[in-house]
């Protein structure tokens, strides 16, 4: 019996010594576990598919990686909600916005485009950070209060002062239009997609006229846009500003019949969505160089938010980084003798039309 007590005593002593020795190891394990970096989950809401959204996301991810945050931010597939470019789709976008706002497993929501940003604001929970991206006119659409203040504590975006005003002025400098045509859906978002207020300002400034066709519906088809363009041509326009609407989306449809129609009637065109439409036949357009500057700008915003800065306190303005693209074939067909200064300042010069497949492969 005495011997058994001695054995138990030895075993108990060994157990105490082992437990004491294990304490530092357990502490180190807890410390290592607590030192694991947080991975931030970002949700995305889109009012509809748009090639610009995909390029923006790519530019954002590349910029985050360059800043050393590539493995600290994830974009879960089940947290990317895409609506539909239709009147019915608006209700779907609102419901998707509500679902994302109610989720407890996301650290930030990106609203891609005007419609998505407006839907998120309509159901804003007041605390989940929202970053609105690729907006045509954040102020005009009522998404933010001004270029300096979003007006909403958990919201920020990017504002490029006078971006489209500058482009429309350049369009007038090159072609000297007398009657500029615009077509749009007569809603707050629809008017921003065609930069209506900027167009009105430029024609007043230049002594020209603005001919408006406000009868498009959400998700307007190529046929509906053709009707609008025919009405504008019959109204005597000599130039048309091509808005960011589905019938000109070269990634899912074929806008070439619309561009050919305008070119046949010697109507000068400016593509708001940039080089791809110029490659397909538009006279002029923007050139955004893969949205890299914007990607870096928004990446900095996300990082600062994750580090604790309130979205409303972030800077929203950035300089205009867009360039100019020109189609020389279209210029020749229309009889435009482009000024050498314009040619020198152009960032992309297209000497011939490209096929739709070629343009899509170059995305």
Question: What's the quick description here?
Answer:
The chain has 14 helices and 13 strands. With 363 residues, it is an alpha/beta fold. The chain folds into two domains: 40-161 and 290-313, Rossmann fold; 176-287 and 322-361, Rossmann fold (3-Layer(aba) Sandwich).
What secondary-structure arrangement, pairings included, does this model have?
Layout: H1 2-34, E1 40-46, H2 51-66, E2 73-74, E3 80-82, H3 87-102, E4 108-112, H4 114-122, E5 130-133, E6 155-156, H5 163-175, E7 179-185, H6 188-193, H7 196-206, E8 209-216, H8 222-234, E9 239-242, H9 256-264, E10 268-271, H10 275-279, E11 284-287, H11 292-306, E12 323-327, H12 328-334, H13 340-345, E13 348-350, H14 356-361
Parallel strand pairs: 1-2, 1-3, 1-4, 4-5, 5-6, 7-8, 7-9, 9-10, 10-11, 12-13
Antiparallel strand pairs: 11-12
Helix pairs in contact: 2-11, 3-4, 5-7
